[in-house]
């Protein structure tokens, strides 16, 4: 018995047990189907008979050997039984009456099996026991034809069925596909190697376990509810393994052909072929574009939906929920969470600034994008809020048919070559942000599924960003509360000094002639003055952040006065000074410019110049303070520069920049800042001209009236 599967050893015994196990499984499954012919209807009895004949074939293979003439005859009979069972399966949904295209294939496959039976009988008459050595290639070729024809029939059985019939036919169709698919692999390897593969000989009978299990599983009452839904990741990995296996098969086939060619250069040709294939693989497989194309193509043809929504949502939540010292900021994580959905390599996040205008809040792996200080105008923001439209920027550039409700995108975004899509982040129908995604390695057209998923993910991100803003506002209110408590201590110190001075004044009326009293009085006055001067030095730069009244102010004159105050202290130059009259308050404007110049001086080297420029256009007057000092990072400007009580100076209150910005806003203007670490900073104050302030005020008043 061990000789049936090769040389002596452990494997022949394992192979025999595998064949016997397959036979036992087919006997049980066939008997169960014959006893309970309900599920498969008219196909139940043929399936039971096919399983019974498969069991007889497996027993013959276990005891007589796979290549024994009796086993070969039973193999042909088994295939004929499965072909008849397949024909009866077509009758489950009535297709047996309209099988004109399929019936010739079925008859042809059956005819090939009959030829195999006739060939075995002819060989037994001429040379009994010589089936394998004499007719090996003939039987292998006929087996290949039967396997290919059987796979075509199994595909038509399932592919042509109705949606309801597929729920029942999928299990027997899968069993038939595995039956003839395994045989196809077996015969291909046998044909290429010129002999029967010993390992597959042993496993061929064990496949009866799989056939029987699938047929019985489909006959269960609850088989319709069973779903096999592999994830996208599992499918891609499985297909990768299949591609690797196919590559190895092709490699073996070509190597065998080169060896069979018998030329003097066969060895060199094999080495050259392997080298070329390896170089091609190293050149192609690392390509992100190729991987993107493969993923898109497989998703398009294998799945009903492009995305595995469960996996996408878990990844989205994991990206947003990252925490710790090494984690990126929430803004960068928000960009990445959306970019992962479309496999975009980079992105930008635009959010509302303190003045309500949209500006760049964060960039992820996109350092070259040139974003202006005001990134979105009011018209674009309003359009996104009304439509919640996910913009396909490539389609807009190419002049494709876009809906009328598509918002008008700014020129800088249309001019950015990597910009691919713009996703609005809406929170209670208010635009809190806009994510611009860069074009992926493999570019594809966005469809409805992309738009729906990006729109939903954008709303979720908007809630995260809004919650973060709310927490920052609460933290800022808490800092203000702390500041008020600190001021209470300052007031307490001032009150103590005032009490000392009041007491000193009353005692002076009584003891002014006493020399010792006069000495103590001078010492007390000196100490009180020192305390007041120290306190004033800390508080002198931080005054009221409200403006009492606005009036025409000459900006060039105020700038000149500030420059004069730094004469002999630090090189501060007024390099351009246009006569410009804005609407503002002289003391507040001078305080703002003085503070910004002082900060520029503090951030610059002793001999580094600080330059002021006063300009004027048709609507606004501008004051620029430029230095070439240490500079600031984008993160510092975004998160710390204008945060009260966050100071980088020892003993500072940390409200100077905040106060300057609020004073400029109170005068109807805005404060802009640009900076690069190691290069310097530029602060720009924009205030309305005095000549246009009245017109602007009347327009605002009219707008409020209409509203």
From TrEMBL:
Alphabetical UniProt keywords: Kinase, Membrane, Phosphoprotein, Transferase, Transmembrane, Transmembrane helix
The Histidine kinase domain, residue ranges: 489-691
One Gene Ontology term of the molecular function aspect: phosphorelay sensor kinase activity
TM region(s), chain numbering: 17-35, 47-66, 72-90, 102-124, 136-155, 167-190, 202-219, 239-259, 265-285
SMART domains: HATPase_c
Catalytic activity: ATP + protein L-histidine = ADP + protein N-phospho-L-histidine
Enzyme Commission no: 2.7.13.3
Family matches, as Pfam families: GAF (PF01590), HATPase_c (PF02518)
PANTHER family linked to this entry: HYBRID SIGNAL TRANSDUCTION HISTIDINE KINASE C (PTHR43547:SF2), TWO-COMPONENT HISTIDINE KINASE (PTHR43547)
Name assigned to this protein: histidine kinase
Gene source species: Novosphingobium kunmingense
